[in-house]
Amino acid sequence: MDKIKFLLINPTSPLWRACERGRPRGPRVFRFSMLPSLSIAAAMPPEVETRILDEDVEPIDIDADADLIGISCMTFNAPRAYEVADRFRFEKGKPVILGGFHPTFLPEEAIQHADAVCVGEAEPNVPRLIEDFKAGCLRRFYRERLTDLKGLPRPDRSLIRRRAYITPDVLQATRGCPYRCKFCSIAAFHDYRIRTRPVEEVIDELASLGRHIIFMDDNLIADRDYAMQLFAAMIPLNKIWFSQCAVGIASDEELLRLAVRSGCRGLFIGFESITQESLRGWRKGRNRARDYRKQVRRLHEAGIGVYAGFVFGADSDGPEIFEATLTFLLDSGVDALQATRLTPFPGTPLYDELDAQGRIFDKDWGHYDFAHVVFEPLHMSRETLHRGTAWVLREFYARRRIARRWWNQMGYLGWAAFTRVSVPLNLGYRTRLTANGTMDLGSRFAAPRACA
């Protein structure tokens, strides 16, 4: 076999699947460059010719010319991944490899729909997997240690339809997170470790990309010394970049100053809850809810937009949490919001805890998309949690509040952050929440008053 034709598929939910003619649905701002798939393709031996198929962008062709099928999935799209895998295996006789978060945490489930399962990261598993495929003796499971990030091959971004994504200029400087938040599958996947690429390799890759960059790191400042070195080295490149990190950056004057000088203009920050009790319960007590307003203000004063992540459904949450959180969001002036229902993903301590308590009533993985309630809350009904989350989103993304945010942002956000992040995110969320029924659901919730 001179060349191995490898088709790597990213399945998605029916709501966002591309039309038959290959026209994407939904706002482009939620479609990032396919960095995990690009990294898998880059790790392949030279005799492997990889084609990446993102179901958000083009429909799956069951008759595709391929020798080997790879499918990567998280929990929410695992049912679709299994459906596609079964079709390729049983209708077309194609060998299928499953990988990603969900197959890593539940390999015995995944192997029922595949010829082999890649457990953990692809880079250390790929060489042996391809050798075994060529020899006709694929093993059921491939497990290797986490990869060393030094010398990683550079992704070939020509493998994706560049204009279908918010930007193709996406990269990672680090992987993983050392913190042990109960609900986080990302930290669990990376064995609660932070690994870093050599700064000079990151700088070399950055120099080859456009001016506007997204770092897809899980927590870019988890290794503070590394972040300091990276930011200092980035300053001469004159880039404008966006990423996600812990809220602690707002309280570290030296680190924040370097981040701004290196071009940081927007951050996704997991605040998670406005109550310290909830944060402690999730092992996220390093966040200090009492400092949130001051931290948002410091980031705004530095010219950095704040994309806030909040989770509803902690054991300490009652129905009043929704109005209290909305009040904080509006008073602090965060620039965009991701609000989700607490979801106990397999592989996390939260899943094990709630499952042991018999509180997980729904194990349809397709519902593990942050848009469904799959467990029994302690101090509110399932319906209250479901509708209350929708209400916060509906109120935050009301037209008048979007307009007010934009007016306020004129005073602290630069043009790049405003036009490339705030405007697309706010309009994109409103479009998405209307399409998936959240705006309508939120209209049917009466928020109890928070205690003074």
UniProtKB/TrEMBL annotation:
Keyword Transit peptide listed: no
SUPFAM superfamilies linked to this entry: Radical SAM enzymes
Record carries keyword Transferase: yes
Domain Radical SAM core: 163-383
Annotated CDD domains: Radical_SAM, radical_SAM_B12_BD
Domain called B12-binding: residue spans: 10-140
UniProt keyword terms in alphabetical order: Iron, Iron-sulfur, Metal-binding, Methyltransferase, S-adenosyl-L-methionine, Transferase
Gene Ontology CC entries for this record: cytosol
InterPro entries attached to this UniProt entry: BchE-like, Cobalamin-bd, Elp3/MiaA/NifB-like_rSAM, Methyltransferase_Class_B, rSAM, rSAM_horseshoe, rSAM_sf
GO MF terms, alphabetically ordered: 4 iron, 4 sulfur cluster binding; catalytic activity; cobalamin binding; metal ion binding
Cofactors named for this entry: [4Fe-4S] cluster
Name assigned to this protein: B12-binding domain-containing radical SAM protein
Organism from which the protein derives: Candidatus Kutchimonas denitrificans
